[in-house]
Amino acid sequence: MKTNQLDEVDRQLVHALTVAPRASFRQLAGVLEVSDQTVARRYRRLAETAGLRVFGLIHGPRAGWVDWLVRLQTAPGSAQRIADTLAQRPDTRWVRLFSGGAEMVFSLQARSPEQRNTLFLRGLPGSRHVAAITAQSVLHVFSPVAYVGYVDVLSAAQVNALRQTEPDPPEPEPEPSELALAPGPAHASILRAEDDQLIAELALDGRAAVADLAAATHWHESTVRRRIDELRQAGLLYFDLDIDETVLGVNATVMLWLKVEPASLDAAGRAVAEHPEVPFAAATTGPTNLAVSAVFRDNRHLYAYLTTRLADLPGLQSVETTPMIRTVKRVGRWDAAP
Question: Considering only CA atoms, which of 69, 120, 126, 148 is closest in space to residue 322?
Answer without folding.
Answer: 69
